[in-house]
Amino acid sequence: MAATEKQTLGFQAEVKQLLNLMVHSLYSNKEIFLRELISNASDAADKLRYETIAKPELFESDPDLKIGVAFNKDARTITVSDNGIGMSRDEAVEHLGTIAKSGTREFFSQLSGDQQKDAALIGQFGVGFYSAFIVADKITVNSRRAGLPADQGVCWESDGTGEFTVETINKPSRGTEIILHLREGEDELLSGWQLKSIIRKYSDHISLPILMQKEEWDNDAKAMVMRDETETVNQASALWARNKADITEEQYKEFYKHVSHDFAEPMAYTHNRVEGRSEYTQLLYIPSRAPFDLWDRNQRGGIKLYIKRVFIMDDAEQLMPVYLRFVKGVIDSNDLPLNVSREILQESRDVKVIRDGSTRRVLGMLEELANAEEQEKKDKYASFWKEFGQALKEGIGEDHPNQERIAKLLRFASTHNDTDVENVSLEEYVKRMKEGQDKIYYITAENYTAAKSSPHLEIFRKKGVEVLLLTDRVDEWMLSFLREFDGKSLQSVAKGGLDLGKLEDEAEKKQHEETEAGYKELIDKMKTVLKEKAKDVRVTFRLTDSPACLVADEHDISGNLQRLMKSAGQKAPDTKPILEINPNHPLVQRLKYEDAKFDDWSHLLFDQALLAEGGGLADPAAFVKRINQMLLDGASK
Q1: Torsion angle, alpha carbons of 610, 611, 615, 616, to 10
Q2: Tens digits of per-residue pLDDT, 583-602?
Q3: Residue 551 CA from chain centroid, whole number
Q4: Which of 375, 406, 421 is the last residue of a domain?
Q5: pTM for the complete prediction?
Q6: Half-sphere exposure (CA, 13 Å, Cβ side) for 291?
Q7: pLDDT by residue (tens digit) across 280-320?
Q8: Are residues 21 and 164 in the same domain?
Q9: Domain range holding 42?
Q10: Helix/strand/coil percentages in the chain, nearest 5
Q11: Where are the beta strands (DSSP E) in 416-473?
């Protein structure tokens, strides 16, 4: 089929699903369609402005960028137009027929069918153009990309039910015109007053003029009549360039929704003009919830870069470290060249100054919430940690200059609280340390239950020593960089020999030495039996209820990290754990006098210890056989 002919094509499966859910889930907030279309028009103008830096001819004979909104009561249509970059035929098919976001399928798998919950998720995903189908049962898009001849315009049309048509048209002016054919019952939108009200509510911050035909009251006709002239219905100046005193809280929040395409309000924001060696303005936001693709470290798009109010790029990853990839906003520099490239950004000293300054601002926002006395701010930080805590932990290894500040922002579950809520800071832990305690103790595990019930905690519970319970996948990596806090070293309770320092008195130490000597023969026999499984066997006094546990040698990776690496398909170092036995446990005491079943009992103690820490058995059948035999032996007595 020739490219000029009319084609009927099918939407991508995800688009069909999104359209079906969105019309029902977002209907209660239907006026956001206008915000989304105006935001897209603003983005199209920004992109044209950037391309004309190298190709000024793309302005053609129309250098004044603007957005138009119009309505036609007789035809029951609303039209949103712009003279921005526009689309070619292929771009219309690609941009309006598919969703290219990474993680799309994972996003849709989270949708539950609950309209209220799905509405939040859809808003988080960003619906853009498709939101128009909330109020329209047919949409016509006429567009021509800047630089293409007039006869290479494109008309895209769809009723949103599964297919769309596309054909080449003649379009003298560049840019895009979106015509919404309203659904029945949406006539209230066919009002200049109503449309202006929506624009001023949601899009007043747009830096381009939004033009509408002027309406005036005609006394003779006793009705509002259209005039030939147009009027600008928004402030039409870059919000971040205005004085903070002139910007309302509502305007800040609506601008966030514009730059982030998020329906929810931001958790916090900071707006600053920085002067000195490098001059720039920053308006940065922390979202109230994590985007669905937060864990895709290659998915960057939070910071829009402007230079002297000219849009340059909307995914300037060089301006914010990866661990703060959730931050949204605008940075406008007065010093960078307009023809800046990503390569120049990577090497520029000015960019490093902006990046460092912006990082400090974001950490400052988080510190203000984390250290606040007001309950509202405390609750906000708890919410932030739940949504973004794992990403912030990455900063411990990635941002050494700010490592101490980030460490103070970390939150953990601990044995101090009988809950899996991560609300314990390292500063709070240090304040609660026992007299004579010189280490911060922690345990890593696959989940909270496994951590809380680990046999390694037994002696710490007995002595009332708090232990941090770490269960995020990133924790093992983070701990390889976070070695101490406030002069106190961090110590895994499941690694190396147990050293309680001054928490043990001299009488205890002497008693332990005597007990160890009494078990030397047993230990030697068990080392021989378990030489293929255990690196070493030794007596421990960290256990009070369990007969045995496994620990990693001081310089070996932990058992939890080994399991994480294997589950991720990575090759883990081939290290063996150390088996520690509790000399006060009846099973271990009986083993001293067991000859016939010594080997089986030794293997059982090792396998039980492995299961207790969440490990998997190399030979489950042999374990079951030994357990069954032990049960039979017990039953026969």
Answers
A1: 110
A2: 989 989 888 888 878 998 89
A3: 34
A4: 375
A5: 0.74
A6: 25
A7: 999 999 999 887 777 776 666 688 888 888 777 777 778 89
A8: yes
A9: 7-235
A10: 45, 20, 35
A11: 439-444, 468-470
